[in-house]
Amino acid sequence: MSGPTIRRRQLGRQLRQLRDAAGKSSRAAAEWLDVSQATVSKVENGKQAPKIAHVRLLLQLYGVESPRSEAILRLAREANQRGWWTAYGDTVPDWFRDYVGLETDATELWTYDAELIHGLLQTPDYIRAVTAACNEESADFDVECYIDQRQARQDRLTSSNPPLFSAVVSEGALRRMVGGPEVMRAQIQHLIELSKLPHVTFQVLPFEAGAHPAMVSPFILLGFEEDPDMGAVYLENHQGALYLERPDDVRLYANTFERVRKAALTPKKTKDFLVTLGQSM
């Protein structure tokens, strides 16, 4: 079953469709619930889980009867469940929790990284080194809890129902001495081991590839069970994140990833590259 983040998105989409079918405006829905139009918009866009009582009232306003109403209410209950990541408190920023929920529900992930190795592929020592560099002024930051949270995310790759995972990383991220030679040798060996998994494809984009279409920024594409195509693009910065879901935007990034993947070393040549690089450190 899909997790609460996807259920919230599904619920919002269905409520919007029911409102349109009933010929009601978002203002009318807001007045009926005695909430703001902004709240209705957040619910319909999957940004906020509604109260079950509010869903009952909306179904009444839209004239929805059983068995459809029962199915919507069941979806609403599932959308209000807590995700596993809420147990990690302050180590998961509010703006990142939506992404973790989407990542947990995704059936396919495509990632391109230029400066660092993707979080799902990092070793604990690599995580410590990156975290130390990014949080040197925050003495209260719980590094070990952050690592536990990251490893909980990584568990999906070795679970009984893992996503298809395709990662392309720039050669520069592998040559950067994050934590020193010993940490990087262990990280490279970890990548070699993960790349043996049948659902994981790891490729290196070498310097010799020259200019390429993903030079502007790293990105992540997420695919979901109910959608035959990739469903969303995730772009992150220091203060938050941007989600792109318009089909044209998603297609643009999917095309960019396909071109980068084509320019990268094949998985077999990538493994040879990693072995040689690890031995040279």
Automatic annotation (TrEMBL):
<dbReference type="InterPro" id="IPR043917">
    <property type="entry name" value="DUF5753"/>
</dbReference>
<dbReference type="InterPro" id="IPR010982">
    <property type="entry name" value="Lambda_DNA-bd_dom_sf"/>
</dbReference>
<dbReference type="Pfam" id="PF19054">
    <property type="entry name" value="DUF5753"/>
</dbReference>
<dbReference type="GO" id="GO:0003677">
    <property type="term" value="F:DNA binding"/>
</dbReference>
<dbReference type="InterPro" id="IPR001387">
    <property type="entry name" value="Cro/C1-type_HTH"/>
</dbReference>
<dbReference type="Pfam" id="PF13560">
    <property type="entry name" value="HTH_31"/>
</dbReference>
<protein>
    <submittedName>
        <fullName>Transcriptional regulator, XRE family</fullName>
    </submittedName>
</protein>
